[in-house]
Design brief:
The structure is a single chain. By secondary structure, this protein is α+β, with helices and mostly antiparallel strands. The protein has two domains: about 1-85, no CATH class; about 105-330, BirA Bifunctional Protein, domain 2, CATH 3.30.930. The protein contains 13 helices and ten strands. It has helices at about 1-15, 20-30, 35-45, 50-85, 105-115, 130-135, 145-150, 170-175, 220-235, 285-290, 310-315, 325, 330; strands spanning about 120, 130, 155, 160-165, 180-190, 205-215, 240-245, 250-260, 275-285, 300-305. The chain has a seven-stranded mixed β-sheet, sandwiched between helices. The relative contact order is 0.11. Bound molecules: phenylalanine. Phenylalanine binds near residues 166, 249, 281, 282 and 304.
């Protein structure tokens, strides 16, 4: 019997398997329910005591060897299966489609970067706000036609809750919370109930700026926007201020820059005028400061606001505003 055990031991030690079937037949013979080792253990019971001393450990050894060998065989067969058959490790990897940063986000980041270098910080506020923050505190009198200029989406009436029509609501919130000096920009999304076309959309993005402090003058406004324009559109850019009207600023001005496409000689982008409008601006109306609890005899300020879509359209000569919100990757991939 000892000879039989020894020959099984060498059979187990030398066993190999290339397929799952071969592993299975090894298992059936040496580990399965009716395996040959169990038979040997049965026989072992009849063996005289003096033989048992040698035979016992040999049998146990055979049993352990068989179990370990089974594990070894099945793991080599399953590892071999994945590396040899279906996966070719020499093939180049498959890459996912890479996205790009939306042009509006790119322009927004650039604007923020330029103003941050001039000492502005970024302020944020809600897109849903009340009438006070969007209109009344900004010196829009009740029933004043200026309210009609900004076709408002109302969410609730009396008291009015609305989608902000400009990011000026953040200015009001900021001045209510923080005393001068203030030097902040407010980028964000705004909403107006306009028919969607190549030139207008029901939502767009703005960056507004607000500076409040002692002795802030129109000269500061002009220099800040002059510096911005040169950084944004090139160092030869000139600016021009045209008188305008906003309820919250007095005096008010539109900011034009010399056309950076034709350099001022006249082209399609500037409609042959040599100038393109980029922002509204003005000195903060003292009523607005007072509405926010800021002493208008001590402090003055200026504010400006620009459309991010408009600036992006000018910069990349995009002629349809709707492209920004259609998510067509053929358009987005170009930036
Ligand atoms: N809030 C104005 C608008 O959306 C823009 C603006 C801001 C104009 C600040 C002047 C000063 O039309």
């Amino acid at each position: 019997m000892l000879e039989k055990v020894k020959s099984f031991i060498s059979e187990v030690e030398n066993a190999t398997a290339k397929t799952e079937e071969e592993v299975e037949s090894f298992r059936l013979k040496f580990v399965g329910r009716n395996n040959v080792i169990n038979d040997l253990f049965e026989e072992f019971k009849q063996v005289p005591a003096e033989q048992k001393r040698e035979l016992g450990p040999a049998l146990n050894n055979l049993k352990n060897l068989a179990q370990n060998k089974l594990k070894e065989l099945s793991s080599t067969v399953s590892a071999g299966k994945s590396s040899s058959s279906d996966i070719d490790v020499t093939l180049p990897g498959a890459y996912g489609v890479e996205g790009s940063i939306h042009p509006i986000s790119q322009t927004k980041s650039r604007i923020i970067e330029i103003f941050e270098r001039q000492g502005f910080n970024v302020e944020d506020g809600p897109e849903i706000d009340n009438d006070w923050n969007n209109f009344t505190a900004l010196n829009f009198p009740e029933n004043h036609p200026a309210r009609e200029m900004q076709d408002t989406y109302f969410i609730e009436k009396n008291p009015d809750i609305l989608l902000r029509t400009h990011t000026s609501n953040v200015q009001i919130r900021l001045m209510g919370r923080k005393k001068p000096p203030i030097r902040s920009i407010m980028p964000g999304r705004v909403y107006r109930n306009e028919a969607i076309s190549a030139r207008a959309h029901c939502f767009f993005h703005q960056v507004e700026g607000l500076v409040v402090g002692e002795n802030i003058s129109f000269r500061d406004l002009k220099n800040t926007l002059y510096h911005f324009s040169k950084e944004m559109f090139g160092k030869n850019t000139k600016i021009r201020l045209r008188p305008s009207y906003f309820p919250f600023t007095e005096p008010s001005a539109e900011i034009d820059i010399s056309c950076f496409i034709c350099g001022g000689s006249g082209c399609k982008i500037c409609k042959q005028t040599g100038w393109v409008e980029i922002a509204g601006s003005g000195m903060v109306d003292p009523n607005v400061l007072e509405n926010c609890g800021i002493d208008s005899t001590k402090y003055s300020g200026f504010a400006f606001g620009m459309g991010i879509e408009r600036i992006t359209m000018l910069k990349y000569q995009i002629d349809d505003l709707r492209l920004f919100s259609e998510n067509d990757v053929r358009f987005l991939k170009q930036f």
